[in-house]
Amino acid sequence: MCGAANKVESIFCDKCNARLAPLIAASGAAGEGTLPLPKPPAPETPASLEEELPSQPVSETTSAETDAPDWLARLRAEPAMEEESPTVRETMPSWLQPAEPVAPAQESESEPEAEQPAWLRQAPAEATPPAPAEAETPDWLKARAPTPEPPATPTIEEPESSQPTVAEPPETEMPSWLKGLEPTEETTAPETPTEPIEPAATVAPFEISAPAPTTEPAVSKVSEEEIPDWLRAAPSAEETPPAAAPPELQPLSPEEMPDWVAALRPATPPPAVAEGPLETEGPLTGWRGVLPLAVAITEPHAPAQPVEPAPSQERGRLFESILAAQAQAAAPVKPRRAWTMRPLIHLLLALAVLVPFLIPPDLAGSTLKIAGTPAAEFYDTLQGLPANATVLLSFDYDPSHAGEMDLLAKAIVRHLIQRRVKIIALSTLDTGAPIAGRILDQAARAAGGYAYGANYVNLGYLPGHEAGLANLATNGFAPTTRDLVQNQELGKLPATANVKTLRDVQLVIELAGSEDALRVWMEQAQPRAGVPIVAGVSAGVEPKARAYRDTPARQLAALVSGLVGAAQYEVLSSQPGLALVSVNAQSAAQLVMVLVVILGNLIFWAQALLRARGRAE
Amino acid sequence: MKWLATAIAIGVGLIILLDYFFTLPLLDALGVAFKEWTIILTAFAMLVGLGNLVIVHALRIVRRNESGTGYSVIVLATSALVFVVGLIFGIANGPMVWLFDNVYLPLHGAFFALAAFFLATAAYRALRARNIETTLMLLAALVVFLGQTPLVSGLAGAKEWILSVPSEAGVRGILLGVALGTIATGLRLILGMDRPYSE
Predict the structure, then answer these.
(1) pLDDT digits (tens, 9 = 90+) for A525-561
(2) Beta pairing class for A558-561 and A533-537
(3) Edge-to-edge, what's the strand order for the sheet holding A558-561?
(4) Are A584 and A425 in contact (CB under 8 A)?
(5) In chain B, which residues have their Cβ closer than 8 Å to the Cβ of A564?
(6) Are A400 and B108 in contact (CB under 8 A)?
(7) Which of A179, A197, A142, A161 is nearest to A54 (CA)?
(8) Cβ–Cβ contact B196 with A under 8 A
(9) What is the 3-state secondary structure (H, E, C) of chain B?
(10) CA distance B66 to chain A (A)
(11) B137: burial class by Cβ within 10 Å (0-12, 13-18, 19+)?
(12) Planar angle of CA A437, A443, A446, nearest 5 degrees
């Protein structure tokens, strides 16, 4: 350092060309947009590899200097003090010390020898590398010796470039394979940039030039035996034209750039951005700070430090926990159920069903209409049966309908027994067979002199549903058919000895608890059987059963339905029973239902009227 | 092999249909045979249903984590009890008849009787004169209710008219529709347009 006064913005001394701005700032600015992290010491690299390293583009450094922050500008303002202060140099890392610009050899030698590492002593400065001994330096290395740079050239020197070269071992220690790597005379000399480089501040975008390669790799000399044939055919080193310098990185010409990429490029260049990375490729080449997100992604992020909860937050949590405990401790308030009519309806219905059983049956029986009713028609049909006639009685209802249908079935069976008509019972339902057996047995015991086998037979369940009924109507009873109770063939039982088909019976009585059972009989048996069919059905089936009765063909010869029909039949047959008593309860229940319906409509209309008045007001 | 099932179904359907309209010894024999086969298959279907019932409830008991496991135990226990009693004593004799008359029949009757209370509540809510249609329906229901009651014999004629004219007209329409639908379904099966047996 000459100690001459220079301008604040000067980087190099006007007198001695010594660097005034610290290099660490330049190196830090080399990585645009990144923190000036200290570089680790560069590893020792062989001289051959070191030469292959491209030099740093100058333009980035110079541009970084123009964009240097304030703290860096202050550093520039004190160049002399920095140079004159030996402590600053001592505190600098060792890898940075030789990165000084070209300086006189005296200054390098003035540094204390003891503080320099061994490798640094061997290479005190890049500008003046110590000339190795002629005996220790191979010829190829001599040819690669770096050319001293002119002192006036403001080149930016990378720390790696200033590292000392590795001391070459003596030639006697060099292995044979390494000798083969000795460069030949034809090896081109390294091209060292000697011309000064213009500051990059004047470099326009898209005109960034790639650094020129320093040297060409050494060509090893291989023995002729080791060269393959295909390689011999290749042109020799003399014939090979000198390698052209790599093309400079140029932006894509408009012809090479696809249209869609060109469309993405902004029409006008963005405003000058002082910070951000410089784009070196793609359609944004030469622009800076266009993609700031990339910096955020590539920058190392410090892990988030756990935040200690403040005491106020702790107190807030405690307050919340107290509130939650109080909410849990409080008993849930059940919504008050609205009063409904349901309990009252159920109570009225229960009373209506139970109370009539306490009054004498004559009261209800006296009000029953008998003449001209369907029950009377049914009664007349049974009364018209000849003596010792045989009827087929089908119990096609399940236990759920037994409460209603049993009374009707008992009334009919009692009448048949009274008439001494032979009964053949069966069922198209699997649960109908035991019902038939129970009713027949009870009625036979009550009547007396009416024996199983002789007067009535229970054939049980007729499987197959429609197919079984169609087969029965078409082909009659199979010869192997046996009764349910005695397991006897039909021919061996007096009641069924002469019955082979449905045509052998005088009447078919269908006791249907559901519409389906009656429909199957009407569809499968009635057209084929050729025998009159009468039906006793539940009250719910009556509307549908009427359709079979009220026809010109009289598919149903007679129809009796429900509990009322059973009561009428009991009256007609002069055998009052449970049906006549139950009809009082049923009548009372129906009256309650009518009252409930009327009450519901009154409430509905009252509410509607109140709502209308509310809207009017 | 679906064509074979289709061919069998169409053939059997045609034979049964022709047997209904014509009296030929061959058709009669085939018709009787097919009907008996159907009856046998129906009986086996009941056995298959029983097996499925046992498997479903047994699996529910084995898994243990399903709700209603206790009911499955009751179903399997009672099924096994009735099955064993029927095998030993027969279905038309003492123990079996006693079980039917004293367990099965009262349970079904009681369950069905509860419907009266639900129907009463439903009638209270649903049978309301909101418009002309519901008013007509309400009036018809009230007339049939009262006409069915021996104590109010004055409405018996009105009840008989409602059941014989409007109600029966609707029922006939329903029956005719069901019959036409049955014919259409039978024709589709015979013509092979519907193949539920091959699914």
Answers:
(1) 888 888 899 999 999 899 999 999 988 888 899 999 9
(2) parallel
(3) A456-461, A422-427, A390-396, A507-512, A533-537, A558-561
(4) no
(5) 148, 150
(6) yes
(7) A161
(8) no
(9) CHHHHHHHHHHHHHHHHHHHHCCCHHHHHHHHHHHHHHHHHHHHHHHHHHHHHHHHHHHHHHHCCCCCHHHHHHHHHHHHHHHHHHHHHCCCCHHHHHHHHHHHHHHHHHHHHCHHHHHHHHHHHHCCCCCHHHHHHHHHHHHHHHHHCCCCHHHHHHHHHHHHHHHHHHHHHHHHHHHHHHHHHHHHHHCCCCCHHHC
(10) 30
(11) middle
(12) 135
Cβ contacts below 8 Å, chain A against chain B, sum to 157
- Domains of chain A with bracketed CATH: 1-200 (no CATH), 362-576 (3.40.50)
Instruction: Tell me the HSE value of B116 on the side-chain side, using a 13 A CA sphere.
Output: 24
DSSP state of A501: S
A383, A557 Cβ separation under 8 angstroms? no
Contact A471 B32 (CB under 8 A): yes
The residues with which A426 forms a beta bridge, in sequence order, are: A394
From first CA to last CA, the distance across chain A in angstroms is 105
Substitution target from B35, B172, B176 for chain A, most A beta carbons within 10 A: B35
Of B97, B120, B127, the CB nearest to A434: B97
Write out the two tokens for A57: 């583009």
Angle ∠(A558,A457,A474) on CA atoms, nearest 5: 60
* Assigned token pair, A542: 């009556």
CB atoms under 10 Å from CB of A551, counted, come to 11
CB A201 within 8 A of CB A62: yes
Question: Measuring CA to CA, which residue among A193, A109, A212 is closest to residue A150?
Answer: A193
Residue A463 has pLDDT above 70, yes or no: yes
**Measured distance CA(A440)–CA(A432) in Å, rounded:** 12
Q: Does B16 touch chain A (CB under 8 A)?
A: no
**Substitution target from A349, A405, A445, A594 for chain B, most B beta carbons within 10 A:** A594
Highest mean pLDDT among A1-5, B1-5, B184-188: B184-188
**Is A78 in contact with A25 (CB distance < 8 Å)?**
no
Token pair in block for residue A402: 């037994």
pLDDT band at B126 (very low <50, low <70, confident <90, very high): confident
Tokens of A555: 């598919």
Q: Where are the domains of chain B?
A: 2-66, 115-188
Q: Which two tokens stand for residue A371?
A: 């003449």
pLDDT on residue A361: 60
The residue type of A41 is P
Contact A460 B150 (CB under 8 A): no
Shortest CA gap A434–chain B (Å): 7
Contact criterion met (CB < 8 Å) for A601 and B101: no
Six token digits for residue A179: 């000798």
CA nearest to A562 within chain B: B148
Residue B45 CB partners (closer than 8 Å, separation 6+): none
CA A414 to CA A579: how far, in whole Å? 13
pTM: 0.57
The tokens for A252 are 């894509």
Residue A507 distance to chain B (closest CA, Å): 23
Q: How far is CA A604 from CA A342, A478, B132, in A?
A: 15, 62, 15
The tokens for B194 are: 């519907």
Interface subset of B 125-144, CB within 8 angstroms of A: 125, 127-130, 138, 141-142
pLDDT averaged over chain B?
87
